[in-house]
Each structure stands twice: as C-alpha cells, then as structure tokens.
Amino acid sequence: MTTPYDPSGVHPVIGVDAGTTTLREADHLIRDLAISLALPPGTVACTHLIRTEGRRGTAVSLALPEGGESAEEVWRRLTATEMGAALGDRRHGPAEAANTAAMAAGEHAARRSGRAVLFPGVDQLTGTVTVADLLRLSAVDRVIVVGATSGDGPDPVIPVQTQDHVRPEWREGQLVLALVPAAGNTLAPFEVPNPTPCCADHTS
Prior knowledge:
The chain is 23% helix and 28% strand. The protein has helices at 23-36, 70-78, 95-110, 131-137; strands spanning 13-17, 44-51, 56-63, 84-87, 90-92, 115-118, 128-130, 142-145, 159-161, 169-171, 174-182, 186-189.
C-alpha cells in the first residue's frame, strides 16, 4: 500500500451533495473536489446512489485521514460553496442536499455502502496486475469473482486487467472489489469504464 491507511481507525467522513445524477457525474465531482478542496493523501472518496422521495441521483462521501486539521480545513472550504454538505451534526447548504449528504456520510462511516473512486493505492492499479499485487498495493481488502461457486478467492497469481478503472465497494466493513473472468485466463473488474475512464476527461 503506497499510503498508510488503518481500516480499523475512525476517520472523519464528510458527505457532499452537489446535485449529480449519475455515477459518472459523481466520479467527475470527486476528481474536482480532490483539487478544489486539496484533499490530503489517504482520503477515501466514494459515490452513493440516493433514492429518496425528493431526490434521485448520487452523492459523495470523503473519509479523511486521522490526525491534523484535514477535516476542518476541508469543511471550511466546502462552506464557501453552495453544495449540500454534512460533517457529524453539522450541515451546510440547502436542507434537502445537506440531508442526503449526511446519508452518504453515514453509510460510508459505517462502511455499509459506498463505491470508492479515490483510495490509497488506486494510482498503482493500472494496466495489468496480479490479484496479490492488487491487494498488496491498495486499500482493497478482498476480491470476489462474480458467479464463482467456491467461497475461496481467486488464485493470487491470476492477472487482473484493471482497464485503469477500479471501483471497489464497502461491504460489511471491508472494501471489496468484484471481478469477472476475462480473456486469456485473466480477470477484470465487474464495472467497466463507460464509455471511457472518467480521468480521461480531465487530461484533455
């Protein structure tokens, strides 16, 4: 793992609702927030599907590293925007957006749900890596193969074609990456870039 990350620690989690509707838009939002809020190394940023009576779309959550004033600094920058945001009992922005931001933060804090876009080691998961290296280099706790009948995980030496698009999800306290069989006795993430990786739009 390139950046220390203690999965057992309590990390401040900020929720943000900027009115995004799709996962792709939420991915873009996270990339933008990483720059505008100067998110520190070790941040885990996730997307969340929101399905309430008044809101159908996506929100994001930012779990910040422990120690220092990172959460307060990020919160201060967020309160200078018009986005809905939540940190603990604090709320900012339109009431409905602030409430959905709080929902996203709560799910991430409990590690019940959340699709991780930024996480320690994600920059190492490019091209083709083995299952073992994927787990060693990143904050991903576990990999599963969709449709596998065995409860055991895949062989650690099997190559994973990342397509530079790795989106693990929180499941019962663990960051889990779903994989599917791919050509040449390899594996690939279940979620594929559509139509191209989000970061491609940020490099043009």
